[in-house]
# Entry
Amino acid sequence: MTFLITEHPIASVDQFKHALLTYRDRGRGIPSAWLIMLRAQGKAPCATMTATELADVAGYPNHSSANLNYGKLARNLAEILSFTPTEKHRNGEPAWWTTISTGIGADPDTDKHFQFVMRPELLQALREMNWVKATQ
# Structure
């Protein structure tokens, strides 16, 4: 059985733009692998990718590394947006990735992996900033 994790918008397009630029302009900027993941997901069909796909494009050795870094990116943006996810991991920690994506759950019956679906407001922010080109 496949399920969709949804949540109301957590920020506007302008708020996401502000968060991205604020993080970029702090110290060392946004790590290139994080930008690669954002751009790849933004260009993917329905702005949807698995952690394995994100790892492949960003050069991480496995899906766990991609998950870790995707969460770090999301947590940094969440702090700027003053957002704390209501979705929690089994250990009770906030699921920071929900700052930048919703998701389609894994389906063991069809061997489908969990899919990150970029929040539309973030996708629009990335497009307006020309960090992601709109697909035709």
